[in-house]
Write a structure and sequence with these properties.
The complex is a heterodimer of chains A (about 250) and B (about 260). Chain A has about 250 residues and is an all-alpha fold. Chain A is built from 9 helices and no strands. In chain A, about 75% of the residues lie in helices and about 0% in strands. Chain B has about 260 residues and is α/β, with parallel strands linked by helices. Classes of the chains: A mainly alpha (about 250), B alpha/beta (about 260). The interface between A and B is medium-sized, with 23 and 31 residues.
């Protein structure tokens, strides 16, 4: 970060080599030179954002699936525990959760996992709350006969859930999950408040030193847009690939 | 299966009582199955026929009653004994309940692999044998959504048979089928009966019941109120509730084979 600070310390007083005109903030030349110079730096932030979101989604998935199963099938006390978790993480702003965990709980627990790790875990736990409800809805939408059929064959409930219920429920969850992906991606911008070096933080950093707010934030916006599109397109493809032959998923 | 004495029941369900949402659905119902028995449960809608059937393999746990597998009483509170009971008792549902995400062969193979611990290759091989038995060897790779109702029900029968059940429960196996598809499923069931597979069947196909059943149980309001061979209960002038019920089915639809249509 220190090296970057020097690079973007102040708007250049002298024109960089190769630039014919003296540039100052707001001039076309300054806008382009700033973006070109800042782009690799912000692109690195894109990598951080992608890692952050991938990590958070994975954590959310790994927690969300068992949570959904618990909420639907487990005895009441366990199901209520999950309900409480969901209620908490859905009821508190992500920004507050980030501060609560990073400055509060993680510190208290003596956990030093850095800003990226902390952001990943907080976003992941939040996403788990939302994802569990996507999966729960999908499980509940399956006909009751599926579980009955598994039981009638002598399979244990866990086997039936694992091999009959979840393969179908997860397929049905893909559209909702794609929604969660795009929301989480944009929520990840809030991690800049912890100083997590992702797209938003880096853009903010460059903008505050070069005063090229508009073009820089447009660039950052386009990056978010591109990642969203890429992810949603990929999930669309997965949805088509996972479609059950002969089964109409179109709702028509 | 070991050869059993003809007088030892292979399965007994005794004094079943079941409450659902505070209402008494089953009231002291019993049934006893000997090798080769085909028993048909009939009765008006809401009589508790399906509930009785689902209590026998504990898909619904009876509030009171005992289940005996041969000489052994099943403690269905014990999950191991419960799963064991369900392996011995195959079940066919009105709505087929095939696993929609698996092809026909995998529908049959799944429980073989997970419950019996068979290898994938062995399970699929067994699945093909069972599918051939119901005349569907050429449909093994198709998914449920690509099969007709009759074919789906035959896959469901193959799936149940693959577990080598001691007894088969059939819950209105043809009621969700188009009339022209009923025949193919009944043919398979008739064939099973001819090979001595013990069955308890809920059905409105009276002609079929009369031809195949060794005993008819007539249920009403959660009780078995009449019980006997088709010849006894349906003899001309027998004056039984069973006969009365069947006559009404006749009057409603003109012929018995379309009796199930009147339900839809």
């Amino acid at each position: 970060m220190r090296a970057e600070r020097r690079r973007f310390a102040t708007p250049r007083k002298t024109s960089p080599a190769g630039y014919p005109f003296h540039s100052h903030p707001g001039s076309t030349v300054h806008i382009f030179s700033t973006i070109i110079e800042a782009f690799p730096y912000i692109l690195e932030g894109t990598l951080v954002t992608v890692v952050l979101v991938a990590g958070a989604l994975s954590l959310g998935f790994c927690l969300g699936v068992p949570m959904a199963v618990t909420q639907v099938y487990a005895p009441k006390p366990a199901a209520m525990l999950v309900s409480f978790y969901v209620w908490f993480f859905r009821g508190v702003p992500v920004l507050l959760l980030l501060f609560l965990f990073y400055y509060g709980l993680f510190g208290l627990m003596g956990l030093d996992i850095g800003t990226i790790g902390a952001s990943c875990i907080v976003l992941g736990m939040t996403s788990a709350a939302y994802q569990s409800q996507i999966f729960r809805g999908a499980i509940l939408s399956l006909p009751a006969g599926q579980l009955k059929a598994g039981r009638a064959l002598g399979m244990t409930d866990l086997q039936t859930i694992r091999h009959v219920i979840l393969p179908q429920a997860l397929r049905l969850s893909i559209p909702g999950w794609s929604n969660e992906y795009s929301i989480l991606l944009k929520d990840s911008a809030m991690c800049f408040a912890l100083g997590t070096p992702e797209i938003m933080a880096r853009t903010h950093f460059v903008a505050s030193r070069t005063y090229e707010h508009l073009p820089l934030y447009i660039t950052a916006g386009l990056l978010y847009f591109a990642i969203t599109m890429a992810g949603v397109t990929l999930l669309r493809r997965l949805e088509r690939k996972a479609r059950i032959p002969g089964y109409s998923n179109s709702g028509m | 299966m070991n050869a059993q004495q003809n007088d030892t029941p292979i399965l007994r369900a005794e004094h079943f009582t079941k409450y659902l949402t505070g209402r008494k659905i089953l009231d002291d119902c019993s049934i006893s199955m000997r090798p080769g028995d085909v028993k048909v449960l009939i009765g008006p809608s809401g009589a508790g026929k399906s509930t009785f059937l689902q209590c026998i393999n504990c898909l619904l746990e009876p509030d009171a009653g005992e289940i005996w597998l041969g000489e052994r009483k099943v403690d269905f509170k014990n999950t191991r004994e419960l799963y064991d009971l369900r392996q011995h008792v195959g079940m066919i549902f009105q709505e087929f309940n095939l696993f929609d995400h698996l092809s026909a062969e995998r529908n049959v193979a799944l429980a073989l692999r997970k419950v019996r611990g068979m290898s994938k290759a062995d399970a699929l091989q067994r699945a093909h044998v069972e599918l051939a038995r119901v005349g569907l060897e050429d449909k093994a790779k198709l998914f449920p959504a690509q099969l007709s109702g009759g074919q789906k029900q035959r896959v469901a029968i193959a799936r149940a048979l693959a577990m080598d059940p001691t007894i088969l429960l059939l819950d209105e196996p043809t009621s969700a089928l188009d009339p022209e598809l009923v025949g193919e499923v009944l043919t398979v069931i008739r064939d099973l009966a001819a090979h001595g597979m013990p069955m308890i069947m809920v059905t409105h196909q009276m002609e079929f019941a009369r031809a195949v059943a060794t005993e008819i149980l007539f249920m009403e309001a959660g009780r078995v109120i009449e019980q006997g061979s088709p010849e006894e209960l349906l003899a001309p002038g027998a004056q039984t509730r069973t006969q009365d019920f069947c006559t009404r089915l006749y009057e409603l639809c003109g012929d018995v084979d379309s009796a199930q249509e009147s339900r839809n």
